[in-house]
């Protein structure tokens, strides 16, 4: 299982982000490519401890039991629900969002597991740094696959 804390895995993600274009179209879902980049950037903020969305009641009950989805080899399901506070619905500027996300990935990866947040994920609850690292790679991979890169 790939982990964003592995330098080569982070480089793979960054290279795929560079292959996106403003005209990239989703293979599923409704977000534009710029909205997807902003969404992924907002998710990075949670993992970095810069944003603290509240826990939802559903996550409180079943999140801990399904968190293995973060670390198994199965791809994330298409059109799954998202954390409401990181659902991007306004228009965004592609180049700006791409650079913001890339910088956050670089910072997160270079800070290492020890700088990962200890604040609970809004759905899954408390995660180890390994679960965050694998989960972030899997989330980014999911959305990059959504846009064909």
UniProtKB/TrEMBL annotation:
Pfam families: DUF1569 (PF07606). This is DUF1569 domain-containing protein. It comes from Paenibacillus lutrae.
